[in-house]
Amino acid sequence: MATATTKCNISFQIYYTSSIPTTGATASFRYKIKDSAGSYTQYDITSVPASGGAISIPNIQVTGEYEYILELSANGVSDTHTGTFNVEKCTPPACEIPVIKNVYLGEGDQIIMDYPVDEVDLYAIEYQIATDDKFTNIVQVRVVMGSDYTPIEFIEMNDGTITNETAYYIRARRHCSKSVVSDWSNVFGFRSGKWGVRRVLEAYCLPANYDLDKKSICQTGGVWKKQVILDTPEPRAGSFIFLIDGITSAIPGNLREFESDNPVGFNQHGIRWIRFEAPDWSIIYNVDPKIGKIIDISSYCES
């Protein structure tokens, strides 16, 4: 009987004898839950070790008793062996713990966290901010999905959770899947600055169900003119767009007020392009409509 090892692998030794030298021996290992109606899972072994050598079968994910069929072929001759093995406990793969390299104040005292992680198999990143290093008084929790992760995180400043000129602590952990989560990272202490209330900005927007039409977005006035607030002092890549209350994200489902005079698709599809009257009226930005985030510069209006 084979013995289960960690991370849902099994290993066993194979013994065989042959009346002639074996060359190019191969084997197949088929297994399934014992007495189940399901089909066998097959693992092909292209390089068979010498008699007494070990073979490892990886990635068996369910505990229980299994039945197997091992077929060995060499020099045109085959032999089959059957048996059972138990998988008593599967240890999930290690989930890398993130490291917070730095937390600092950027433009306008925006709090910025630098926490690079390996994006392979990244399901999500979660971070917490508290007023104490034991995290008994947590004031902000954020979960950033893997598809939205960037190594530089601009901390939410407009929801009232961060008080000016106050000491805080932050930690993060990695979600490698819905069920596999790393331990918490190092705790990084920082002090907030003098973050001010963001002003309302005049902007021109096009929804995601439209193509980029410079004639529309570069005009002055009209149905494309809206008012928004950013979480940064000036428009730039990484800025999140909010409605004029400074709290409601400018994402699909929240943009009914954008369509009070002319329903064109903002509330269903979100903002895809945006231009501001100041500081540079000519810049047209790309926006991720699902999260209301400015991605980069798309193009420019011509004077």
Automatic annotation (TrEMBL):
* Protein name as annotated: Uncharacterized protein
Q: Which domain of life is it from?
A: Bacteria
